[in-house]
Specification:
With 141 residues, this protein is α+β, with helices and mostly antiparallel strands. The protein has a single domain, classed as Hotdog Thioesterase (Thiol Ester Dehydrase, Chain A). Helix content is 25%, strand content 43%. The chain has 3 helices and 6 strands; from the N terminus they run ααββαββββ. A 6-stranded antiparallel β-sheet has the order 1-2-4-5-6-3. A hairpin with a 3-residue loop joins β4 (94-104) and β5 (108-117). The radius of gyration is 15 Å and the shape is globular. The protein starts with a helix and ends with a strand.
């Protein structure tokens, strides 16, 4: 299988994320170790202050992390996640979570995730996540 076909199989596998699909999030793999998730905030995604619920922001960050760390075709799971919420967002805001691989070791990898307002460029939250790579491929090399 050539590299293009392999990357397509990896992308197809990641697109099966039921929760991302439920929220209406669009998951995009930009390159191995690099992903983006796009989500428009609806009224149903707010807390009692009328701002985007922290769980939604965490969720799109986690989706970007999962896509980036699994984008090599090897099963990867979260070891540690640390997120800082910096600014509120509101219904109608279009958020993007972008994950970039900062370190890739034999078994562990580290990712920086930025969640921004796509229209204003404002930084909404920032996360640093660590993954553990299992000795299992869902799309072999």
């Amino acid at each position: 299988m050539n590299n293009t076909a392999r990357q397509q199989k990896i992308n197809d596998h990641i697109q099966k994320d039921a929760f991302a699909n439920y929220l209406g999030a669009k998951v995009e793999i930009a390159a191995p170790g690099h992903s983006r998730v796009f989500l428009t905030i609806t009224n149903d995604m707010t807390n009692f202050h009328g701002t985007t619920h922290g769980g939604i922001i965490f969720s799109i960050s986690d989706m970007a992390f999962a896509a980036a760390c699994n984008s090599h075709g090897k099963v990867a799971v979260a070891l540690n996640v640390s997120i800082c919420f910096l600014k509120p967002s509101y219904p109608g805001d279009r958020l993007v979570a972008e994950a970039k691989e900062d370190h890739s070791g034999r078994r562990t990898s580290l990712y920086d995730i930025r969640i921004t307002n796509r229209d204003t460029g404002e930084l909404i939250a920032k996360s640093q996540d660590q993954a553990y790579r299992m000795n299992e491929w869902f799309v072999p090399e």
